[in-house]
Amino acid sequence: MRKLQLSLLLIFIVTACHIKPQTLDVQGHRGCRGIYPENTNEAFLKALEIGVTTLEMDVVISKDKKVVVSHEPYFSHEIAIKPDGQKVTKEEELQQNLYQMNYEEIKKYDVGSRKHPRFPNQKKIKTYKPLLGEVIEKAEAYADSKEIKKPFYNIEIKRGPQYDNIYHPEVEEFVQLVLDKINQYKIKDRLTIQSFDVGALQEVKKVAPEIQTVLLIENENSFEENLELLGFEPNVYSPDFKYVTSDLATKCHQKNIKLIPWTVNDEDDMQEMIHLGVDGIITDFPLRLNNVIEEEGIKRL
Question: Domain GP-PDE spans what residues (predicted)?
Answer without folding.
Answer: 24-293
